[in-house]
Amino acid sequence: MKVVSELAPARAELEKLARPLGFVPTMGALHAGHLRLVEAARETCKSVAVSLFVNPMQFGPQEDFERYPRDVESDSEKLAQAGIDLLFAPETAAIYPPDFTTFVDVGKLGTRFEGAARPTHFRGVATVVAKLLNIVRPDVLFVGQKDAQQTAVLTKLVEDLNFTTRVEIVETVREPDGLALSSRNAYLSGEERAAAPTLHAALQTMLKEIRAGKTVEEAREAAAAVLSPRARLEYLNLVDARTFSRLQTLRAPAFLIGAARFGRTRLLDNLWIWK
Ligand code: PAF
Questions:
Q1: Is the pLDDT of residue 115 over 90?
Q2: What does the alpha-carbon distance between residue 158 and residue 139 come to, in Å, rounded to a whole number?
Q3: Which one, 4, 5, 6, 14, has the greatest CB density within 10 A?
Q4: pTM for the model
Q5: Rg of the chain in Å (alpha carbons)
Q6: What is the per-residue pLDDT across 168-206, written as a single tens digit (0 to 9) for each?
Q7: Are residues 149 and 106 in the same domain?
Q8: Does residue 88 share a domain with residue 116?
């Protein structure tokens, strides 16, 4: 595995890689969910590149940018073991030089749900991924289903801006008790960790109720009752998988999406409904 942090050497190394080239963008703090993305890339691509960059532009001023878990050494070891070809780990100044001013505005999709809770988040995600796609020029971009709205934003970004990369969405990896893997799970106290899987259980209940013919409102009530009293629910909703506009009846492809706080930690989860 080659490790590069500057743009020109990164481009030179990327040029040498066999095609198709799979790309997994990450912010580090790698867990089995990220490694599943790498595995999916290895299954279908001849070469795999991973980026490790904690993108300041996707964090709001009161968010956890400073305390976001960082462990570059352990991440590099995991990626070397996973058999990737290139790790691109740039410094902030390489991605955002002091005179940087151009951003990608993702429109309405970026203002709903996660975008309402985190107003500059998707603009930051879309901007950095557009830059990374221009730097890496992969054939396939691998993203995790856990961040459902991000998958919709990146699919739209690639379509709208005519990137030739194909987007591949990889199923969420879960702990045995159902908790979706996330770098932010590291923030949870013992009691919060015990309560956190109830977000997944709530989504499963909601889907069961909707499939049984209940309205979205009724299903949401039943789902909220399954959540731990430790959870502060932000939303549980049925949405169109591409636009993230709310659905009142089930029409695939859709996502059932949920967000809740456990202590100071805000967790997301979703169920993907394709039929
Ligand atoms: O999902 C993430 O880790 C980030 O949002 C991404 C796609 C690497 C962009 O910074």
A1: yes
A2: 12
A3: 14
A4: 0.97
A5: 19
A6: 999 999 999 999 999 999 999 999 999 999 999 999 999
A7: yes
A8: yes
39-61 average pLDDT score: 98
Residue 210: its pLDDT value, please? Answer: 98
Average pLDDT of the residues in 26-55: 98
Predicted local distance difference test score (pLDDT) of residue 275: 87
Atom of ligand 1 nearest to the CA of 51: 8
Q: 83 in the Ramachandran plot: left (φ > 0), alpha (ψ -120 to 50) or beta?
A: left
Q: Residue 143 C-alpha to ligand 1 middle, in angstroms?
A: 8
Q: How many domains does the chain have?
A: 2
Kindly state the average pLDDT of the residues 127-155: 98
Q: Assess whether the C-beta atom of 55 lies below 6 angstroms from ligand 1.
A: yes
Decide if 200 is catalytic.
no
Host domain of residue 105: 2-170
Q: Are strands 47-52 and 254-262 parallel, antiparallel or unpaired?
A: unpaired
- Residue 223 placed within a domain: yes
51 ligand 1 Cβ < 6 A: no
